[in-house]
Amino acid sequence: MRKILGALRRADEHFSMIAPGDRIAVGLSGGKDSMLLLYALHLYQKYAKKDYALLAVTVDLGFGNYATDVMQAYADGLGVPLHILKTNISEIVFDIRKEKNPCSLCAKMRKGAFYEKAKELLCIKAAFAHHGDDVIETLLMSLMYEGRMNTFSPKSYLSRRDITLVRPFVFLRERDIASAVNRLDIPIAKNPCPIDFSTKREQAKEIVRYLNSLYPGTADNMLNAVKTADTYNLWNKDWNF
User: Fold this and answer.
1) For a designed S-S bond to 151, which of 90, 101, 116, 138 qualifies (C-beta 3.0 to 4.6 A apart)?
2) 130 with 170: CB under 8 angstroms?
3) What value, to the nearest 5°, has the Cα angle with vertex 121 and ends 119 and 123?
């Protein structure tokens, strides 16, 4: 956990993510990333000398086979309160709306439900477990599907929700998280979504893997490019086309 906590501390210090008195809701999906984030923030409470409150929120999409008992036992073992929010998002997205590309609407509704619950629990910050590989994949998807260079920020104030979103794992790579989860034997709750692993994000992940196999270090270079925005050499926004 030394590497995990070191990267978390660096992100916290660099982006001023956590302050004394914060009440933080962690988005707990049951996947390896969020399960490790909850554990890391739990440990960080002890070593960072910052008095902040920690709780977890799980949004149950309503597929009917979500192993929330695994997450409940895990959170109980850490002494972190877990709030499981049951919804009918899956029914709306797949049965009522019959979305051909359901991920966007599902994500929007899931985040909306999460933030609403977090505010109900008087949280002023939310923490998601997005890591460095997520940064790269989001940038690639933005280029491919939106025609722009864009990725998420390590820290964002969401004015509509009046809550600050932080991503303490942005300096970590997915391989670091997977290794830590395996070593610590952290339990995982399988994603019940029927189209998991067949999404645009998974396709972007495969493209990055392929590029990295051809040119080792590509993924690291892409992440470094995001970190050093002052080196960009793009066309002047004042030009008219």
Assistant:
1) 138
2) yes
3) 60
| The pLDDT of residue 198 | 59
Whose CA is closest to 132, among 207, 226, 38?
A: 226
What DSSP designation does 22 have?
Answer: -
Strands 23-27 and 125-127: parallel
What's the whole-model pTM score? 0.91
Helices (H), the chain: 2-15, 32-47, 68-78, 89-90, 103-120, 132-141, 174-184, 200-214, 218-227
CA gap 45, 21 in Å, rounded:
11
Residue-wise pLDDT for 147-193, tens only, equals: 888 899 999 999 999 999 999 999 999 999 999 999 999 999 987 77
* Vertex 90 angle, CA 89 and 92, to 5°: 65
Question: From CA 197, how far away is CA 65, in angstroms rounded?
Answer: 17
Of 132, 121, 100, give the one whose Cα is nearest residue 208. 132
pLDDT tens for 183-199 read 999 999 987 777 665 57
Beta bridge pairs of residue 125: 24, 164
